[in-house]
Amino acid sequence: MKLAIMGGTFNPIHIGHLVCAEEAVSRYRLDKALFMPTGFPPHKEILEGASSEHRFRMCTIATEGNPRFEVSRFEIDRRQVSYTVNTIRHFRREMPDAELYFITGADAVLEILEWKDPQELLTMATLIAATRPGYPLDKISGALDVFLRENRVKIIEIPGIGVSSTLIRNRVAEGKSIRYLVLEGVRQFIQEKGLYRKT
Ligand code: ATP
Ligand code: MG
After folding, report:
1. Can you tell me which atom of ligand 1 is nearest the CA of 9?
2. Can you tell me the distance from the alpha carbon of 187 to that of 155, in angstroms, rounded to the nearest whole number?
3. Phi/psi of residue 127, nearest 5 degrees
4. Which ligand is closest in space to the CA of residue 13?
5. Using CA of residue 154, residue 160, residue 161, residue 167, what is the dihedral sign?
6. Suppose 176 and one of 25, 118, 148, 171 were both cysteines; which one would form an S-S bond, judging by CB atoms 3.0 to 4.6 Å apart?
7. Residues having CB within 6 Å of any atom of ligand 1
8. Whole-prediction pTM value?
């Protein structure tokens, strides 16, 4: 069993996240990509315009057409921002025989390696870092070199998608269209619930 976890706030989930996970799954023949929306302190939810439940629901909607994609409530149910290393530790314990991967974009991989017990993280899971427009991995990869050499971090080149959740939130607030930047079901959900609108 090859299981990859993809963490994020997914506020909201967009095509960049999906392409990233799909590339990792097909490239490394993974059995499953588990989307892991992070928990949030309650005050931050109000600021950001979507609750944990809404972020979770949007992940479910966006992934339901892909048999290899699933969404986990693990971090949301802990009701706080979780450290990746703790989450991986949990899955390591629960599924001792699984081969674990963690998928990130080029921006997030550096955060993880710089802040959160990277040695332990990388003994438990292989990091798959996807290219992302605006975050050139080669220029800022000093911290990555040693892990790349040891094959604990793998870089995958994906079709460049210059979409972020921030962009989506801003476009909704400005009354601009987000069609095709998120899956249609997610767009409808955002509209129905009135998420990210300027109040
Ligand atoms: P925000 O603008 O709110 O930070 P985001 O688009 O960066 O949102 P996150 O939920 O922060 O989305 O990211 C979750 C993971 O997905 C991170 O590892 C991030 O690097 C990756 N990711 C997000 N968008 C892209 C993209 N367009 N291309 C590649 N990776 C991406
Ligand atoms: Mg981000």
Report:
1. 10
2. 30
3. -90, 130
4. 1
5. positive
6. 171
7. 8-11, 16-17, 20, 104-105, 107-108, 130, 132, 161, 163-166
8. 0.95
